[in-house]
Design goal:
The complex is a heterodimer of chains A (202) and B (78). Chain A has 202 residues and is mostly helical. Chain A is built from eight helices and no strands. In chain A, helix 6 crosses helix 8. Chain B is mainly alpha-helical. In chain B, helix 1 packs across helix 2, helix 1 runs parallel beside helix 3 and helix 2 packs across helix 3. Classes of the chains: A mainly alpha (202), B mainly alpha (78).
């Protein structure tokens, strides 16, 4: 085991699972169900799909956890399984083309935009209606990204994996992660600015 | 858009993530000191990322938790 990278809690839970502990199963599920559910919901946009992603991830993980050698972090391994489940689900639906986002389409023209109107998450934390509206705007903007960009954005900016981890998880190059993340972020900025200027997500 | 603005535009994400080599990072710092439009654009991108991170965590409904737990135990007890 790689002592530098291992998470002590996960290591304890994996060891307990291999020794037959039901409690370890519950603790692993409790530890990772919300992050994987969040990831599934932000990737697919539907509760049922998110439930399917969480279920597929844990069923697959517990099927093979007996042989898991902790050469990667448990969290990374679970998200790798979850990302594959999302891609499989998308392929089954066959209705979401993985179009490219071109950098040229996002380039800002001198003086054409005026002031960038992006609301502040902390403007008025007591106003739940505004916060709920803003959350909906952001969730819809993320869901409107082409799948391969959404996948990288969710792993990097929502789940907090670094460039190298994301590249390993998706089995793509670090440069591809950087390129997709950059275009996803620029596209989201455009969509949010556009919503607050024109009242819609494009 | 000027060449310096284009270079800045292409590298903003790496700049915000601290993934640029020192020389390029200093060039962008210098450009942002001089270009109000790029400065504002970088600020708006930074704010976009913060907003998205602010919406991050969802709470999984308890009925989904219960269904998934049952299926896992069913699988492992087969």
């Amino acid at each position: 085991m790689d002592k530098v990278r291992a998470d002590a809690t996960d290591h304890g839970l994996i060891t307990a699972f291999k020794a037959g502990s039901i409690e370890a199963i519950d603790k692993i599920v409790e530890r990772y169900e919300n992050p994987i559910f969040t990831f599934g919901l932000k990737m697919c946009g539907h509760l049922q799909d998110a439930e399917d992603i969480v279920q597929e991830t844990f069923l697959s993980a517990f099927k093979y956890l007996e042989n898991f050698r902790e050469e990667t972090k448990l969290r990374n391994w679970l998200f790798k399984i979850a990302a594959r489940a999302c891609m499989r689900k998308r392929r089954k639906k066959k209705c979401e083309p993985d179009r490219e986002i071109s950098l040229e389409s996002l380039i800002h023209k001198d003086g054409s935009e005026g002031k960038y109107e992006i609301p502040d998450w902390s403007d008025d934390p007591s106003d739940n209606i505004l916060r709920a509206e803003l959350k909906e705007v952001i969730d819809n903007a993320i869901l409107s990204l082409p799948p391969k960009y959404r996948l990288v954005f969710n792993l990097r900016d929502i789940e907090g994996f670094n460039t190298e981890e994301t590249a390993e998880l998706l089995e793509i190059s670090k440069q591809s992660v950087k390129t997709r993340l950059h275009r996803a972020r620029l596209s989201l900025r455009e969509k949010i600015v556009s919503h607050y200027r024109e009242g819609k997500i494009q | 858009m000027k060449n310096d603005c284009v270079k800045c535009f292409q590298r903003i994400s790496e700049y915000l993530d601290g993934e640029l080599e020192d020389k390029t990072c200093h060039e962008i710092d210098e450009h942002l000191r001089q270009c109000a439009e790029c400065r504002e654009y970088v600020d708006s991108l930074r704010k976009t990322i913060q907003l998205c991170k602010g919406t991050a965590m969802e709470q999984m409904p308890i009925d989904i938790h219960d269904r998934i737990r049952s299926k896992i135990l069913e699988l492992l007890c087969m």
